[in-house]
Amino acid sequence: AQSVTQLDSHVSVSEGTPVLLRCNYSSSYSPSLFWYVQHPNKGLQLLLKYTSAATLVKGINGFEAEFKKSETSFHLTKPSAHMSDAAEYFCVVSVAWGGKLIFGQGTELSVKP
Amino acid sequence: DAEITQSPRHKITETGRQVTLACHQTWNHNNMFWYRQDLGHGLRLIHYSYGVHDTNKGEVSDGYSVSRSNTEDLPLTLESAASSQTSVYFCASSGKGLTGELFFGEGSRLTVL
């Protein structure tokens, strides 16, 4: 069965410092993995996706994630946080064809001035 | 521009009443999904559809039903609302194939008193 675990429910960083949001996954086959972002009172937006091509995936707004099969991880990083990055982030694994996805519990990112 | 819209955005109802949340997408997507979002649970899949007249149960389908009579709409019905169904509901859609990019509506906040 597929599952995803986000290791931190809340992360706080200062503006201009690096961001690391951690995600481990479990999948019985080669997974597709995604990060989505949700700003307050909004729907979710795709940040980036891994679908068995390059293991380092670049997304929007300077975010990137590295797929590490040996560690079953898909951590999200950004070199320098911006105030507008404050949001909730979801790590997601695909279950099967057709866009059926399993969401992690979310990590709330706070950015301090 | 293509979009996905949900209505109502906010709804307060009483226990035992029937409630229908509407979802309409203009992407012409085959796949449509309903999720609920609760604190500490991330997003959980309620029902999904891969095309007209196709519906499938997700992980938390009890007490909910959907029907798909056309490509654009997937209404979610709570037959007899319960307080445990107080939540934020998100509709999403995706095109053919496993791209993983779901397009989300902005959510419907339902309170059952």
Topology readout:
The complex is a heterodimer of chains A (113) and B (113).
Chain A lengths: L2 E4 L3 E5 L4 E3 L1 E4 L6 E6 L5 E7 L5 E3 L5 E5 L4 E6 L8 E10 L3 E4 L3 E6 L1
Parallel strand pairs in A: 2-12
Antiparallel strand pairs in A: 1-4, 3-9, 5-6, 5-10, 7-8, 8-9, 10-11, 10-12
Chain B lengths: L3 E4 L2 E4 L5 E7 L5 E8 L3 E10 L2 E4 L6 E3 L9 E3 L8 E8 L8 E2 L3 E5 L1
Parallel strand pairs in B: 2-11
Antiparallel strand pairs in B: 1-3, 3-8, 4-5, 4-9, 5-6, 7-8, 9-10, 9-11
3D structure, described in words:
The complex is a heterodimer of chains A (113) and B (113). Chain A is built from no helices and twelve strands. Chain A is an all-beta fold and 113 residues long. In chain A, strands 2, 5, 6, 10, 11 and 12 form a six-stranded mixed β-sheet that branches. Chain B has 113 residues and is mostly beta strands. In chain B, 0% of the residues lie in helices and 51% in strands. Chain B is built from no helices and eleven strands. In chain B, strands 2, 4, 5, 6, 9, 10 and 11 form a seven-stranded mixed β-sheet that branches. The termini of chain B are far apart.
